[in-house]
Amino acid sequence: MTELAKMDVLLKTKAGKDQTLMIKGHEIRNADHPIDNLFLDRWSPRAMTGEPISESDLMVLFEAARWAPSANNNQPWRILYALRGSEQWPLFFDLLVEANKVWAQNASALLLMVSKTTFDHNGKPSITHSFDCGAAWGSLALQGSLKGFVVHGMQGFDYTRARTVLNIPDEFHVEAMVAVGRPGARESLPEELQKREIPNDRKKLTETVCEGPFRF
Ligand SMILES: Cc1cc2nc3c(=O)[nH]c(=O)nc-3n(C[C@H](O)[C@H](O)[C@H](O)COP(=O)(O)O)c2cc1C
Asked: Is there an atom of ligand 1 within 6 Å of 134 CB?
């Protein structure tokens, strides 16, 4: 059975049980070591319903990001957002490349994550601002997945225009955009994207981790 066919079986089983349109990653993915399903379950679907997200749900995602670790506890991440249908929405949506617009049009919210490149306490450059912001994004994505939201990171947007349109000061680095929404039906996507609507795999640990000096 193909992976997509397996997905269909899983979705049909779910439809009778909890009406969920999004399958959990662990139902397809296999970890080589015993990790919590939380890590396997998060994935990046594209099908979304376009229904509104409540302010309180969104704040829960931001709250998770808030507690991420950072060098000197500088918390360099800043998150700008627009709710679908709001006055702000076109500002964010129009930054996306066409390939992302196709599916992100059904997101409930679009976020832009930026990071402050200097430390608050002394104004000196921070070498880990992107690393820290990535930790915040990771927490946000995991919390969103736990709450049953699609949380999909995007680098396919106009970074230069984002800075001007959204008034990002020079001291901040534009990191990535994120689409957040309620899971939708795979059939709502163009055919090419339907084929990719499945939790993907990872490199072997030995390709990304080594003991001692660099030898990849
Ligand atoms: C920073 C970042 C940028 C990404 N940019 C895009 C994008 O522009 N368009 C897209 O469709 N997916 C994008 N993705 C999704 C990745 O392709 C996806 O996270 C990766 O294939 C791993 O799959 P998973 O998230 O389902 O586990 C991005 C993800 C991240 C974290």
From this structure: no
In this predicted model, what pLDDT tens digit does every residue of 144-177 receive, in sequence order? 999 999 999 999 999 999 999 999 999 999 999 9
pLDDT computed for residue 2 by the predictor:
73
Ligand 1 mean position, distance from CA 137 (Å): 12
How many domains does the structure of the chain reveal?
Answer: 1
Q: Check if 43 has its Cβ closer than 6 Å to any atom of ligand 1.
A: yes
Q: Is residue 117 part of a domain?
A: yes
Single-letter amino acid, residue 132: D
Residue 69's CB: how many other CB atoms inside 10 A?
11
For residue 201, being part of any structural domain is answered with no
| 39 Cβ closer than 6 Å to some ligand 1 atom | no
pLDDT of 88-130, one tens digit each?
Answer: 999 999 999 999 999 999 999 999 999 999 999 999 999 999 9
Question: By the 8 A CB rule, do 45 and 22 touch?
Answer: yes
Q: Kindly state if the Cβ of 103 falls inside 6 Å of ligand 1.
A: no
φ, ψ dihedrals at 118, nearest 5°: -125, 160
Tell me if the pTM is above 0.85: yes
